[in-house]
Design a protein that fits this description.
Chain lengths: 19, 388
């Protein structure tokens, strides 16, 4: 059998300076 | 050396079970992949220095059938997981981002900020804010609260630096929470639609168990709600303190902004963690293209290999994203553009007829007002250019 490899997305924390 | 005795030296990879999968990755590079449990067995064996032959035997025992370890090692090599002589820099995740990782405060210094006691305080602060707004709806802020001075421009000059300061504290808390787990992060600047955002890359969270991933992603909101609880307390005890309603407005509006998970906010990350998704943002894009018949051959192949859970959730998340973006753009056209027009009139008047102080106030206020707008445009252009 072959081993399936799946990339995982980056984890980003954001904040928007409100104006 | 015989083929059987061959070894592969892996970089310092992390191996973490997660649901039915195992997450393996290189924290230094911020590259992580999900593999079935047998993949975890192979990586652990190679990390322990076993030969390829020994590893294949262990894998076969785990899977109950022969496993193609060579092909897997080739994939690991392509991912950059095998020791080579190349320079290692983390993959870029924001349009503007510094290249290296931030080390930052020692783990033992920041750990008390994210222990059981601390999270109890954060939870109580959240409950307090909700209770205050339920019992005193008059304290819920509106755009008028942003007028901390009679003049709109002067209000901006006062409030915008404070809003940036609040964002700084928010991101700082993400960074500290990651440090409390011994992880490193990095800061960047990017955009969400037409919103300028400051961003902390927390990708190293994939190297810790799922339970531990919630804290650092919720840390920014946690400190925001503590600040909000303080501001609301001031409003309750000493009504009419200057500037406080403006600060309440700033925190509440950014908290509501965080709820728009289709903009890939903090709560989107929490949603991905809770549902066990792997690459939802990309799968959502592929599914949307598929819905409109715009999926090419490579996209079709990519979607066929996607995680079934990503596909299941992406099937409805794509419509939430589309609706969210449509509403966001409509909001921009209906509210934001007229606002820019109004302020442009104010700017032109202040710069052409204003003398002395008024001229300089207008220049400063306009700079603060248009800077995010110009920055987002520059970021969008840079993205376009880097895609070519």
């Amino acid at each position: 059998m072959t081993i399936e490899v799946r990339k995982v997305e980056s984890v980003k924390s954001t904040q928007h300076p409100d104006s | 050396m015989s083929v059987e005795a061959r070894r592969v030296t892996l970089r310092q990879l992390t191996v973490v079970p997660d649901g039915d999968d195992v997450l393996i990755g290189d924290p230094e590079r911020a590259t992580f992949v999900a593999v079935p449990p047998v993949g975890g067995v192979v990586v652990r064996a190679l990390l322990a220095g076993r030969t390829l032959a020994e590893t294949a035997e262990l894998a076969e025992r785990e899977a109950g059938q022969p496993v193609d370890v060579d092909a897997f090692v080739q994939t690991l090599t392509a991912m950059g997981f095998v020791v080579g002589d190349e320079e290692v820099a983390p993959e870029r995740t924001a349009t503007v981002q510094h290249r290296g990782w931030l080390t930052g405060p020692p783990t033992r210094v920041v750990r008390p900020l994210f222990g059981r006691v601390a999270w109890t305080v954060y939870g109580l602060a959240a409950a307090f804010c909700v209770t205050v707004f339920a019992l005193r709806p008059d304290l819920f802020p509106g755009p008028a609260d942003a007028m901390v001075l009679p003049d709109a421009g002067l209000s901006l000059v006062v409030l915008v630096p404070l809003a940036f300061l609040l964002v700084g504290v928010h991101e700082l808390w993400h960074w500290f929470a990651a440090r409390a787990l011994g992880l490193r992060s990095r800061f960047g600047v990017d955009r969400r639609l037409y919103f300028l955002v400051f961003e902390t890359d927390l990708s190293q969270l994939w190297s810790v168990p799922r339970r531990a991933r919630y804290g650092p992603q919720l840390a920014g909101l946690a400190i925001d709600l503590v600040l909000l609880a303080v501001f609301l307390s001031v409003e309750l005890v000493w009504p009419g303190v200057w500037l406080v309603p403006g600060l309440v407005f700033a925190v509440v509006s950014t908290t509501l902004w965080q709820c728009m998970i289709f903009l890939r906010t903090d709560l989107y990350g929490v949603f991905v963690t809770a549902t066990g998704c792997r690459d939802l943002w990309r799968v959502k894009t592929l599914l949307l293209r598929q819905a409109f018949g715009r999926l090419d051959a490579s996209g079709t192949a990519e979607l066929a290999a996607a995680d079934p859970r990503d596909v299941r959730i992406g099937t409805w998340f794509r419509w939430l994203w589309l609706a969210g973006v449509a509403v966001g753009l409509a909001y921009f056209a209906v509210f934001y553009l007229p606002l820019l027009h109004t302020t442009a009139t104010w700017t032109v008047a202040g710069l052409t007829t204003g003398t002395g102080t008024r001229f300089w106030w207008t220049l400063l206020g306009s700079t603060l007002l248009y800077l995010p707008f110009v920055s987002v445009t520059v970021l969008a252009v840079r993205e376009r250019l880097s895609r070519r």
